[in-house]
């Protein structure tokens, strides 16, 4: 681990002949360095972060269009290869403001997540077309924009996917109902433009997840009708079946997102093979098939039972580490105990012992 290597470098520097460090200064500096190194390794807030985490929003027992009928929670999947170890962060509680006044305790029914790596913001789109910012440390959401196509509470609202395009600094959102609209939301002005309907020729398609590939400059979508990965024009929302057949063996494809480090496309499905919990998988663009990695420890289905009744639930996106990885807090606590114990032993040993162990040179 980088944090441990950093501590080794500090210890090596202290032991160099010809250098003498005052005991108190050494203790303070070493303690500070150790705390910062361990804090960084634990994923605690800092000015920089290393690696990314997959964030997913759970939804349970949704049986009505009422915005207060939902249970929505933000989760962190630290190891996508073992999705069952996901950690719950907190409910996506809406914060009232001039954009939207939710009922007390109302959570955002987030269908799509997208991380803006230019400005460091995680965005979400709710089923009713409310764009929100998401606090990755708590799950709390702040309303930013209400899409004006349909009124709140309308059954025409089934906004599902959300994707960020860094080349234009914009978000794309798709509606799986209504007229299957796709909109372009420019940042930071939050200017919304309807680009068209997600149609294949004259056939309207229900697009659930959206994901933008920065490497190829291509917008991808998950087609609800046949669980296929499609490409979508950012100019007019036209859909193309670029990758052939459906994701055989894995039904009810929902949200999709790219891992920015590996370029792997991840997909969430509303049910695993052996439970009502959601399943996480990866998509292979060569074989046009998905591989299930395992079940997530929560549901995303609207009615809590098996069946293709879900419209783009399980919003997910990779983003920076804003919460400690399980086990990292234990590492932090253990490191501090060892550190403080070592400093106490040095005090009992006296300044002469410190001087002998570090050399008798003068401070230059």
Condensed summary:
The chain has four helices and 22 strands. The chain is an alpha+beta fold and 364 residues long. Strands 3-2-1-22 form a four-stranded antiparallel β-sheet, with no helix packed on it. The protein has a four-stranded antiparallel β-sheet with strand order 4-5-6-7, with no helix packed on it.
Per-chain topology:
Blueprint lengths: L1 H13 L8 H19 L10 E9 L10 E7 L9 E5 L18 E7 L4 E6 L3 E5 L6 E6 L12 E7 L4 E6 L5 E6 L4 E7 L1 E2 L2 E2 L2 E7 L4 E6 L4 E5 L6 E2 L12 E6 L6 E5 L9 E6 L4 E7 L20 E5 L7 H22 L1 H8 L6
Antiparallel strand pairs: 1-2, 1-22, 2-3, 4-5, 5-6, 6-7, 8-9, 9-10, 10-11, 12-13, 14-15, 15-16, 16-17, 18-19, 19-20, 20-21
Helix pairs in contact: 1-2, 2-3
Structure write-up:
This protein has helices spanning 2-14, 23-41, 328-349, 351-358; strands at 52-60, 71-77, 87-91, 110-116, 121-126, 130-134, 141-146, 159-165, 170-175, 181-186, 191-197, 199-200, 203-204, 207-213, 218-223, 228-232, 239-240, 253-258, 265-269, 279-284, 289-295, 316-320. With 364 residues, it is of the alpha+beta class. The strands form six sheets. A four-stranded antiparallel β-sheet has the order 3-2-1-22, with no helix packed on it. It has a four-stranded antiparallel β-sheet with strand order 4-5-6-7, with no helix packed on it. β12 and β13 (203-204) form a beta hairpin. α1 runs antiparallel to α2 (23-41) and α2 (23-41) packs antiparallel against α3 (328-349). The radius of gyration is 25 Å and the shape is globular.
């Amino acid at each position: 681990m980088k944090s441990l290597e950093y501590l080794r470098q500090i210890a090596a520097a202290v032991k160099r002949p010809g250098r003498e460090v005052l005991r108190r200064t050494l203790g303070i500096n070493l303690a500070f360095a150790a705390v910062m190194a361990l804090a960084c390794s634990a994923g605690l807030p800092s000015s920089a972060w290393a690696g990314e985490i997959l964030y997913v929003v759970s939804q349970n027992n949704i049986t009505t269009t009422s915005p207060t009928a939902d249970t929505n929670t933000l989760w962190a999947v630290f190891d996508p290869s073992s999705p069952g170890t996901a950690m719950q962060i907190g409910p996506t509680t809406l914060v009232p403001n001039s954009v939207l006044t939710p009922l007390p305790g109302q959570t955002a029914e987030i269908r799509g997540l997208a991380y803006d790596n230019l400005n460091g913001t995680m965005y979400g789109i709710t089923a009713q077309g409310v764009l929100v910012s998401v606090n990755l440390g708590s799950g709390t959401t702040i309303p930013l924009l209400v899409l004006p196509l349909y009124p709140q509470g309308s059954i025409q609202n089934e906004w599902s996917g959300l994707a960020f395009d860094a080349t234009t600094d914009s978000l794309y959102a798709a509606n799986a109902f209504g007229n299957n609209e796709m909109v372009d939301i420019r940042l930071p002005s939050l200017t919304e433009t309807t680009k068209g309907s997600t149609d294949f020729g004259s056939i309207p398609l229900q697009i659930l997840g959206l994901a933008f590939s920065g490497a190829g400059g291509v917008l991808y979508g998950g087609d609800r009708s046949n669980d296929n990965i499609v490409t979508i024009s950012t100019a007019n929302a036209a859909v193309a079946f670029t990758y052939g057949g459906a994701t055989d063996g894995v039904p009810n494809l929902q949200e999709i997102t790219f891992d920015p480090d590996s370029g792997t496309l991840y997909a969430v499905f509303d049910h695993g093979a052996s439970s009502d919990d959601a399943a996480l998988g990866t998509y292979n663009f060569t074989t046009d098939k998905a591989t299930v990695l395992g079940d997530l420890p929560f549901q995303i289905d609207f009615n809590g039972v098996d069946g293709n009744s879900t419209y783009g639930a399980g919003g997910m996106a990779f983003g920076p580490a804003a919460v400690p990885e399980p086990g990292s807090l234990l590492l932090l606590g253990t490191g501090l105990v060892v550190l403080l114990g070592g400093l106490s032993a040095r005090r009992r040993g006296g300044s002469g012992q410190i001087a002998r162990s570090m050399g008798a040179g003068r401070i230059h």
